[in-house]
Amino acid sequence: MRILYCATDQRVPGTLGGSTHVRAVAEGLARLGHDVHALVGRGDGPFPEGAVHWHAMGAPLGRAQLRVLRAGAVRRLADTIRPDLVMERYHNFGGEGALAARSARVPLVLEVNAPAIDHPGSRKAWLDRALVVRPFRRWREWQLDQARLVVTPSAAILPPRLPRARVIELEWGADTERFTPGAAGRVPFTKEPGAIVAVFAGAFRAWHGAIQLVDAVRQLHERGLDAFRAVFLGDGPERPAAMAAAAGDPRFVFAGAVSHDEMPAALAAADIGVAPFDVARHPPLALGFYWSPLKVFEYMASGLPVVAPALPRLRDLVGDAVEGRLYEPATSEALADALATLADPGRRAQLGAAARARAVRDYSWEAHCRALDRAFRELR
């Protein structure tokens, strides 16, 4: 099947979760025999080699809010490659893929990874009401109406009016062949003998809770658990605050942005994977924890026990005392308590092995793409 994959607000190659997702899905579908043409922004290096046809078509001025202005270019490309199906990464201000699918008279598959409904207190919803005709709601509902299939990690972020038969819930995943407990490669930190390294990987947004890991490791040392260290992989707006909280303390390492190709070795060198989400700091999460957390799946594939807040969806992804430790309330004190239970290397090894087995069974990109493949063939 020839697939036009429209993800113009993502850059490939890239270090953020969206970039990883788009690349993994495009390459996974190509491995299954599909002829994939992916429309993305150009990242910091050349496009990956392989079977995917990468087309440099980023959002105008790098702003996702202007995506739909690419509609003419996407339609012209569709006229050239004649796809059997268009898949678009949903954005309220997107729709260029939907327009191309309608023009080509082929099915549209919409990937919805962020709410297609308004959260309480949404400024966009307020502006939409102020404009009387509610153009934002009307446009997103038009996109959803065009879709023959909607792919999402959580149906809770879709309008109730959308027929459930047109929705498939799929988690994101990890490349379980690359992310392994023994992954080799450059490691961007030095591990001291006897140290217990808790790793945080992410974009350092306020709701990712990186600063809570700094506070938790400090508390562990105050309790006499001196072996704990924390390594932070990534960059983003909250990194300066986390670095300031850890200033002058050699127990904390901030390695900066790490390419996705280097991430397997970096995670394999750690002992515990931490995902200290602080949902109160992100208003859309009032709708529920709708993310499919890439870092959690990659921790698990790397054989790391996962430590995270006991949020409803995370309870489904990580079994407490089975593949990791879940804590509540979501505070640095509770995080420290959870980390303390993993001071024993045998306990870490037991949970890490279970996490790896679960990732291979349930959370691989291969499983994600095979589910898409089945759904696409049913559409035809």
Description:
This protein has helices at 17-31, 71-81, 96-104, 123-130, 135-146, 210-222, 239-245, 263-268, 294-301, 312-317, 332-340, 345-362, 365-379; strands at 2-12, 35-42, 53-56, 85-89, 108-111, 149-152, 167-169, 196-201, 228-233, 252-256, 272-274, 306-309, 324-327. By secondary structure, it is an alpha/beta fold. Helix content is 36%, strand content 18%. The termini are close together. The strands form two sheets. The chain has a seven-stranded parallel β-sheet, sandwiched between helices. Strands 10-9-8-11-12-13 form a six-stranded parallel β-sheet, with helices on both faces. The longest helix is centred in the C-terminal third of the chain and has 18 residues, at 345-362.
Quick description:
This protein has 380 residues and is of the alpha/beta class. 36% of the residues lie in helices and 18% in strands.
N-end to C-end Cα span = 9 Å
Counting helices, strands and paired strands, the structural category is alpha/beta
Please bin the fraction of helical residues: 25-40%
In total, how many beta strands? 13
Query: What is the overall number of helices?
Result: 13
Q: Could you name the key traits of this structure?
A:
single chain, 380 residues, alpha/beta, Rossmann fold, 2 domains, seven-stranded parallel sheet, six-stranded parallel sheet, 13 helices, 18% strand
Question: Layout of SSEs?
Answer:
Layout: E1 2-12, H1 17-31, E2 35-42, E3 53-56, H2 71-81, E4 85-89, H3 96-104, E5 108-111, H4 123-130, H5 135-146, E6 149-152, E7 167-169, E8 196-201, H6 210-222, E9 228-233, H7 239-245, E10 252-256, H8 263-268, E11 272-274, H9 294-301, E12 306-309, H10 312-317, E13 324-327, H11 332-340, H12 345-362, H13 365-379
Parallel strand pairs: 1-2, 1-4, 2-3, 4-5, 5-6, 6-7, 8-9, 8-11, 9-10, 11-12, 12-13
Helix pairs in contact: 1-13, 2-3, 6-7, 6-11, 9-12
